Fold this sequence. Notes:
4 helices, mainly beta, single chain, 4-stranded antiparallel β-sheet
Amino acid sequence: xxxEANASYKVTILDAVFKACKIKVDSAVLLNHASIITKTPAxxxxxxxxxxxxxxxxxxxxxxxxxxxxxxxxxxxxxTFVSQAAVNGSYTENPFNLSEIVLYxxxxxxxxxxxxxxxxxxxxxxxxxxxLYQASERxxxxxxxxxxxxxxxxxxxxxxxxxxxxxLGGGEYINLVHQGNVEVHARFAQATTATISAVAYCESPGLxxxxxxxxxxxx
Length: 219
């Protein structure tokens, strides 16, 4: 953010370094892997992410975004609202404040009741801030986010929704792939005075398969 009306900044990269660790694998391990891959492909778990954006017209009080992920229901989702001028590169614009936001999965609200917000004197926005810390795996840990309580109320609000359980004892596990209609419903405290954009970011477990012929498939 900048208060300069006609800011013209440049990013100068002074140094770029890529560090890699080279490991010499024992020949017996290589032979064993070569034998196993003839029977079953190698599997690699990774975090699959996606980003989508849609436009909200001027003078809008309520916003509906149906089937955000084309019938895919991901494990975690973040939603924020930002002015179109900021999307186009303005340094002086901030996201908009809401009075209510709710996520629907197959017609069922998540959470059970819409999140009621008040960014005025009542300062009723602790619940979505705590949810953001939980989804970002910062809750009850000795790490923090750049966004604190004051910043959250001044236009840096990001709304997080966890659709699959997490932090179940700290063990490694993979959630199943789900399908479903994910819909965002938001109500603004005041009708929008400018064109804004709704930005959604999602995370879900992915799996890569690599066979003997080095053909890569993903699910």
